[in-house]
Specification:
The structure is a homodimer.
Chain A lengths: L1 H26 L8 H11 L6 H11 L5 H23 L8 E2 L2 E2 L1 H4 L2 H20 L7 H15 L4 H10 L7 H26 L4 H28 L2 H4 L5 H4 L5 H5 L1 H17 L9 H10 L5
Antiparallel strand pairs in A: 1-2
């Protein structure tokens, strides 16, 4: 079973990417009038690119609890909107000042800074609007839990806090523990939310939800180390953004602390640990297991 | 009764401001560590200033339905967080480039641009987190309605859309209808939400909710025209921000379209119309009626 699902992982990821892309296309329509650039920038930043790792985690974790696919895909779309907003703002001149994102001009380069700031703002708003909509779940309790969990994952005690730490410590030599905390906040919490989302949608018990949270935490950490490894060794062509940028910017990464070999080994370890949390979920978790192995071996 | 409540309006506004300030102080704690500047900037932008008009509307509309004050003040705090985020981002160099806000340096001047962008982002997130929390209302349905209504009011079809139109039409001669639409989106929708929030918290029927929405819409429009009048005639000392800035920036205002006298008359008319929507609410709506009259006569 595992061999079959590992083989079918790329196709499954591609299928989810297409599904969430179609949902995003509907949830983020174009709009005429003087506000048109805002709507266009929201689409530009969100549609047509990205690995859709977070969406895939939502869809797979929802699959464990037989959640209605139309509901799950809305949550997957909301997470991708939240993620897209964070990328727009991270790329701004005042932040990481990155001209390239997913192999094309970043949003403030394709539009302008003001439109990019607003598009990020409105994408965050839209993510919560989608989650609170009755179409996302028949239970208001479940919808509120989604809003609570996503806001916690992405706010000052999550993603935004991680980005603040990243900027505040730029150029400083951090220890492994501090780097791990930074990354857990900056990218880990949103990945963890994505893995947990299925349990919230499926009204699962606290134990199952915490297992999926633990899986998400470990996969997120493994993913981030793999990302740092790619940044250190990859080419701009392979990863679709400027390579070697972390080192040039004096960013703290576990590759800088440990070196490439130990970082790679640690990522492998985390991936195995992630898969271990899924032992009780049986064959249905095959693609989540395969994903854990995949994130540390991917080339882009 | 009306005379008494009109007299007691300033004291009531001050009491609400103190109450929401205390709630914000708890909901936005300081935090040690490298993320400290983010938490400090969130507090800087939100605490210690502002008219708290939106908070007052929430508390007064909640009072019409005997909503628990501890619940209502959380919604009032959430609206003020959302409002503070919008001010931080509007003041950025790429947007309105304003160095002064509420009589003190704007957030990107007191901190830096990156911290200001992040503080705005995290304040938006925190607003939705507070609304989704069970402490805000025992009914998850009510909490979801609050999230849905606030996100609708503040997103691309509300506040963010209004700001986009404001930027996209800068320097253009707009007609009265276009200016009114711009202002309804940019500032009106959030004021409308504030007036509606009490009906959502009180699980009121659609009719009462729509009356309060209409009141909020008219008060918001009157408030904005009064604001434009103040900008045109006021001094920086009186309004706590740079005066005459709208005209200098070529911003579209109804003062520019109509001239001062007609703009003032229109604001008065809207204020009367706003009060008219409250006819069915009796004496308990006295302060809301007084507020409608007050917003067009205020000096700052």
């Amino acid at each position: 079973m595992d061999i079959i699902t590992a083989d079918s992982l790329p196709a499954a990821i591609a299928a989810t990417a297409a599904e969430v892309e179609a949902a995003l296309d509907v949830l983020l329509p174009e709009e005429p009038g003087p506000e048109a650039p805002l709507f266009a920038a929201m689409r530009y930043a969100t549609l047509g690119g990205g690995k859709r790792l977070r969406a895939f985690l939502v869809m797979q974790s929802a699959g464990l609890f037989a959640v209605d696919r139309q509901c799950a895909v809305r949550v997957a779309a909301a997470v991708e909107m939240l993620h897209a907003y964070s990328l727009i703002h991270d790329d701004l001149p005042a932040m990481d000042n990155d001209d390239l994102r997913r192999g094309k001009p970043s949003t403030h380069r394709a539009f302008d800074e003001a439109t990019a700031i607003l598009a990020g703002d409105a994408l965050q708003t839209r993510a919560f609007e989608v989650l609170a909509d009755p179409d996302t779940h028949s239970s208001a309790e479940a919808r509120c839990e989604l809003v609570a969990a996503l806001s916690h994952a992405s706010g000052a005690r999550g993603m935004c806090g991680g980005q603040m730490i990243d900027m505040a410590t730029e150029g400083q030599a951090l220890g492994a523990e501090d780097v791990a905390r930074l990354q857990a906040l900056k990218t880990g919490r949103l990945i963890q939310f994505s893995a947990e989302a299925g349990a919230i949608l499926g009204r699962a018990g606290a134990h199952q939800r915490s297992l999926l949270a633990a899986y998400g935490r470990d996969v997120g950490a493994a993913f981030q180390i793999a990302d740092d490894v790619l940044d250190a060794v990859g080419s701009a062509e392979e990863i679709g953004k400027t390579a070697g940028k972390d080192a040039a910017a004096g960013k703290a990464t576990l590759v800088a602390v440990w070196g490439l070999d130990r970082a790679r080994a640690q990522a492998e370890l985390l991936a195995e640990q992630a898969a271990g949390h899924l032992d009780g979920f049986g064959d249905q978790a095959g693609l989540l297991r395969a994903l854990a192995a995949h994130v540390v071996r991917r080339r882009n």
